[in-house]
Please model this.
Amino acid sequence: MAIVKPFKGIRPPRELVEQVESRPYDVLDSEEARAEAGDNEKSLYHIIKPEIDFPVGTSEYDPQVYAKAAENFQKFQDKGWLVQDEQEHYYIYAQTMQGKTQYGLVVCAHTDDYMQGNIKKHELTRRDKEEDRMKHVRVNNANIEPVFFAYPDNQVLDDLIMRYAQTEPEYDFVAPIDGFRHQFWVISSEQDMQTITAEFQKMPSLYIADGHHRSAAAALVGAEKQKENPNHTGQEEYNFFMAVCFQASQLTILDYNRVVKDLNGLTSEQFLEAVSKNFVVVDKGTDLYKPARQHEFSLYLDGHWYSLTAKEGTYNPNDPIGVLDVDISSRLILDEILNIGDLRSSKRIDFVGGLRGLGELKRRVDSGEMRAALALYPVSMQQIMDIADSGNIMPPKATWFEPKLRSGLVIHKLY
Model:
């Protein structure tokens, strides 16, 4: 059973939303945030990337930076750039990318569901990144940015969402960086809110699509507050954290590709010979070549694209991890041939989200920065859910969801 509830969102007035909203904190660095914020004092970057208010080079982990986030959050409220709704609501958040729209319900999920495994994860988290987000939640006493969940398709919720989608949204804008359309509706009907709560209660699990560290941080801060409150009842706002939940079938997962700095001492011919042990290798020429199916990969090397198809027996179709292309390529190419075993720490490899396209892989290799590139066929949402249900964890850098959630459309206070 998935426990969700409506909440009194803190939101920008309609006329200010495009000045306040921003990209998520973890998709850009400090200098990019500084440039995007420019002289816009209403930009959410002043709260989620507050190091931009300090001299260049100031660490984003400096205690004064976290304090500045809280100061700016209060300033935004004092000046009316963020205003709390008087009543509890659910919200609908729609994103349109390349003609395809996905609709999410903005809810508060229960920290106990995360701690007990009812909110399922498919990636490992790092303690240092958890602690960073925990500090941000603690100092603001709020979930400034939502996490990104998926839920099994539900016709009742789909019908409800589509009914709202026919009405005028509260927000409707095209973001300047990604060029995608973002729309937002407020659900005020008590009956509709009860329906949403009841439908989620029928779901055995929710699935983290993106935001594993934010989910962990929110749940851990909630657990801290439970211990600190002698009169804890379980109904306090700190028991909940903000999430945007999308039907699994609507989500778009792009390929998450690899570029490597060297061939581990091999010549190109030796490398291709080694690859041919476990893959059928076909030279596709100089035109961009994208994998067309699972277990097919595209290799870019010396100005040529190659199709690599995993041979039978190189993976176990009954193993939810071993059947993944990210695992096949990691085991049989990156580790076995190139001696790149730890994708999280190796300096010889980098990762390129699929939205940048194959052209970005070609550019980085042709420039001499990288020696070769490997493009993967994207994983499916069903694969992610199956792995999460089995209690397994996906290999690093396996999923790239687009579009990313914009931050600043709504915020959840923990009190």
User: Anything to note?
Assistant: The radius of gyration is 23 Å. Residues 120 and 207 are 5 Å apart (CA to CA). The longest helix spans residues 212-228.
